């Protein structure tokens, strides 16, 4: 792991030299010499890391000191650049600062030079120490590389509403569970799936949840993932919203009601309807005791399916219920699953030769998995990255070494047959992926992680290397790194968009345990969990805290925590808040104490007023205040010259407009900007030409829109425009083209506004595959002007007079269509012969005038998800769609 730290720090300093060389005049030679020492040292670190991970105490101490020396070098250089930056700027206001700096610059340069030289000497001495204990320079100087289209296999097309396409085994288990849940003569109120971690309980439950027999037997469905830090109210609300349809006003009313009222509503819907509720991964009896009041204790048509590691939890839920324990996979099933995950079906495998020898090697390793699906999946994922028999032999030798050493950590049977392969999968990661994997330990158990945000944070941390010539593709590089972790089965995809791209993910709890264990070993971060009695991971005493993950409850002493002097060197804070935690005064302390921050995620923090001192965050790359109530940004935000991602989307439902300073136009590195719905510029002009790197622009106020300015954003891939009052014509000059734009949204809240012609803007962005129109248009553009590349289309308050299906049915690529709230004002809708050849999901919501819907025999051939809600006049659903799965 020292190799990871040294590589990341070296990359950061090289970037600093490229981007801020003017601030390092006078010490540049020393910095370059230090980089040379680090790069030479890295050749020793592969073996050093391996020995430090074993029983070699001297290697472990040496590696720890190397990590800290690399971090210290970064601290010194970054601190000097931060202090020098404002004093070297031009302008009258900085004149006095520059004069003062001239007098003390010589002394400052002497100090910084001495400190850099001291650290360089320390690094050189540590390199000598490594040689003295027998660690040799590696001849393999290959750096970590990023997978590309030819190196990585195509991700399987699987979506959040389907089962695992690699579901193997459990046929007998599935048959039994279907019987337990649907039999009428001997009904069971609660059915539990019990067994050790990695056995496949969740996979089996998901198979049951989506099974056709279950879908035809029950009418309502809900799933909740329960973690060790279970929030009962969140679970109850989530289940209630899935089992019943509520308007937005009704949802707000429920959120404002008492726990007892929410429990009663959830209880009642299970009594009145035929529901299947799945509670996945309940850890203890106390968790069940806190949840049980919302579930019927008597026999009803509804059923509850639990997964848990512990049979006593299952017995507590219902002493007379069924406790089913799946068996491990037999040899044949294990081999079938292994072949799928290891990529035996790939063309490259058939061309690589030695297939029989690989099969023999696979069998030798597979026996150590003891039939546990998780162990087989992870081993297969690891081997899927190996192309030759020689590489498979090396993995086999490592497996034998792990087993012979008895390197099985953890508690109880959960780790039997699993731990060795999890550890091996981590050690096999190329160095550029290791910090990405360790970073996942920031997130709580069962937390659903937004992949786009995760990649943005990895970039801000410096985990993803880049150069100015290839900067435009850095998000794709980060996503490719994430995809490789998925392919190695170290991360689970939770949801995918309709293009197949993963939008959210989770980490299996055993894999998360590994990530947390390795992060603690490597002093990668500290985690403080106030939701679990203030527990904290501990770092070695010689180490400074560089990253901090804080999981808050409403009583957490956050203010006193961030005043702790040991956090002075923090680079990253990820703060996970429950809604509306009173954190306003805390933000000021963050600014005062942590000038070195690159990443700050401080969401759902209640009312926040950002002070002018935010300008001190000059190294900040990622700032998210999503869900907090921020009224305005100070003009000093323009000082954050390194800022790449700014997210100030708010949950504030008032009509107060968010004030955008024109100084945002100074943020030349900005790539992703998320604004609240109601935003206005303090001045009428925002020079977008200065932020030409922008790729994401969400909720930009249409009243300030100038397409000639917008045309400078040639890298824009996502654009959402918003207006809360009468819209105007979207005048787009014919010469303007947004060739990179993939997602476009236009939202106007005022339904009384005049109809708008959207044809000009659609002509300017021919590559868009995701389109949302929430404004009065009355008539769709003609088919010749409609986007042929559309995969997803959402229409809201468009007030269409003519049936849209005649036009939309001809869109050959369209997979998702949603008509919401007055999208169509007509009474009759017809899906013509051959219409919608690719459509898989259709939503008709609050189409109050719709009375008749006809579907021709060859229309909608691939439809598998249908949502109809608030269409009170609709007489019936077409007969041929009766078997399509309804969504609620």
UniProtKB/TrEMBL annotation:
Biological process terms in GO annotation: defense response to other organism
Pfam families: LRR_14, NB-ARC, Rx_N, WHD_DRP
Boundaries of every Disease resistance protein winged helix domain copy: 443-514
Stretches that traverse the bilayer: none
Record's keyword annotation contains Thylakoid: no
CDD domains: RX-CC_like
GO MF terms, alphabetically ordered: ADP binding
Protein name: NB-ARC domain, LRR domain containing protein
Native species: Parasponia andersonii (Sponia andersonii)
């Amino acid at each position: 792991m020292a190799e990871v730290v040294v590589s990341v720090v070296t990359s950061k300093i090289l970037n600093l030299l490229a981007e801020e060389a003017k601030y390092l005049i006078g010490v540049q030679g020393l910095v370059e010499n230090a980089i040379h020492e680090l790069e030479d040292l890295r050749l020793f670190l592969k073996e050093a890391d391996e020995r430090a991970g074993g029983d070699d105490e001297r290697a472990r101490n040496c590696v720890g000191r190397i990590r800290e020396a690399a971090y210290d070098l970064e601290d010194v250089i970054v601190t000097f650049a931060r202090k020098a930056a404002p004093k070297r700027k031009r302008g009258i206001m900085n004149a006095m600062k520059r004069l003062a700096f001239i007098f003390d610059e010589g002394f400052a340069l002497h100090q910084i030079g001495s400190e850099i030289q001291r650290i360089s000497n320390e690094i050189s001495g540590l390199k000598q120490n490594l040689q003295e204990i027998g660690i040799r320079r590696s001849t393999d100087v290959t750096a970590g590389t990023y997978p590309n289209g030819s190196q990585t296999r195509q991700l399987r097309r699987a979506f959040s509403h389907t089962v695992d396409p690699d579901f193997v085994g459990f046929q007998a288990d599935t048959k039994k569970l279907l019987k337990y849940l649907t039999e009428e003569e001997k009904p069971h109120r609660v059915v539990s799936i019990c067994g050790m971690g990695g056995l496949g309980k969740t996979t089996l439950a998901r198979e049951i949840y989506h099974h056709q027999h279950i879908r035809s037997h029950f009418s309502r469905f809900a799933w909740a993932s329960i973690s060790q830090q279970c929030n009962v109210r969140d679970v109850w609300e989530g289940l209630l919203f899935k089992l019943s349809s509520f308007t937005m006003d009704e949802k707000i009313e429920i959120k404002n009601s008492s726990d007892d009222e929410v429990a009663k509503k959830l209880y009642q819907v299970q009594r009145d309807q035929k529901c299947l509720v799945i509670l996945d991964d309940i850890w203890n009896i106390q968790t069940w005791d806190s949840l049980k009041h919302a579930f019927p204790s008597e026999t009803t048509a509804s059923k509850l399916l639990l997964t848990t590691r512990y049979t006593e939890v299952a017995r507590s839920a219902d002493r007379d219920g069924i406790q089913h324990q799946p068996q491990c996979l037999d040899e044949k099933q294990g081999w079938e699953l292994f072949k799928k995950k290891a990529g035996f079906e790939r063309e490259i495998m058939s061309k690589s030769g030695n297939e029989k020898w690989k099969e023999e090697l696979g069998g030798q390793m597979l026996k150590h998995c003891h039939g546990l699906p998780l162990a087989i999946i992870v081993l297969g994922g690891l081997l899927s990255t190996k192309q030759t028999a020689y590489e498979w032999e090396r993995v086999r030798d490592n497996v034998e070494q792990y087993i012979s050493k008895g390197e099985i950590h953890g508690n109880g049977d959960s780790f039997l047959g699993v731990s060795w392969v999890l550890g091996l999968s981590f050690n096999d990661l190329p160095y550029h992926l290791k910090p990405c994997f360790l970073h996942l330990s920031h997130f709580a158990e069962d937390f659903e992680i937004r992949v786009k945000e995760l990649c943005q944070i990895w970039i801000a941390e410096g985990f993803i290397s880049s150069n100015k010539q290839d900067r435009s593709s850095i998000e794709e590089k980060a996503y490719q790194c994430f995809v490789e972790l998925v392919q190695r089965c170290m991360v689970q995809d939770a949801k995918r968009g309709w293009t197949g791209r993963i939008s959210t993910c989770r980490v299996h709890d055993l894999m998360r345990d590994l990530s947390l264990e390795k992060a603690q070993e490597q002093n990668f971060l500290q985690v403080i969990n106030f939701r679990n009695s203030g527990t904290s991971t501990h770092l070695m005493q010689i180490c400074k805290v560089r990253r901090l993950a804080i999981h808050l409850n409403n009583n957490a002493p956050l203010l006193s925590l961030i005043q702790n002097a040991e956090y002075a060197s923090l680079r990253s804070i990820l703060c996970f808040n429950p809604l509306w935690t009173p954190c306003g005064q805390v933000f000021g302390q963050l600014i005062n104490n942590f000038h070195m921050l690159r990443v700050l995620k401080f969401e759902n923090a209640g009312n926040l007023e950002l002070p002018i001192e935010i300008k001190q965050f000059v190294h900040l790359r990622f700032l998210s205040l999503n869900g907090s109530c921020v009224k305005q940004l100070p003009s000093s935000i323009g000082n954050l010259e390194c800022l790449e991602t700014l997210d100030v989307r708010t949950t504030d439902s008032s009509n107060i407009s968010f004030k955008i300073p024109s100084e945002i136009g100074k943020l030349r590195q900005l790539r992703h900007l998320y604004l609240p719905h109601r935003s206005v510029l303090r001045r009428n002009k925002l020079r977008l030409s200065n932020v030409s790197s922008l790729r994401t622009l969400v909720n930009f106020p249409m009243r300030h829109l100038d397409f000639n300015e917008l045309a400078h954003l040639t890298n824009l891939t996502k654009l959402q425009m918003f207006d809360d009052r009468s819209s105007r014509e979207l005048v787009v000059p014919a010469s303007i083209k947004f060739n990179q734009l993939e997602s476009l949204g236009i939202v106007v809240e005022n339904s009384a506004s005049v109809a708008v012609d959207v044809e000009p803007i659609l002509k300017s962005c021919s590559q868009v595959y995701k389109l949302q129109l929430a404004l009065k248009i009355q008539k769709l553009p003609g088919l010749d002007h409609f986007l042929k590349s559309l995969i997803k289309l959402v229409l809201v308050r468009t007030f269409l007079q003519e049936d849209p299906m005649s036009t939309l049915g001809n869109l050959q690529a369209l997979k998702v269509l949603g008509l919401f709230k007055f999208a169509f004002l007509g009474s009759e809708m017809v899906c013509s012969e051959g219409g919608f050849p690719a459509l898989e999901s259709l939503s008709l919501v609050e189409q109050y005038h719709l009375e008749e819907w006809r579907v021709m025999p060859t229309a909608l051939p691939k439809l598998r998800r249908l949502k109809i809600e608030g269409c009170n006049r609709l007489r019936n659903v077409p007969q041929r769609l009766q078997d399509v799965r309804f969504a609620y």
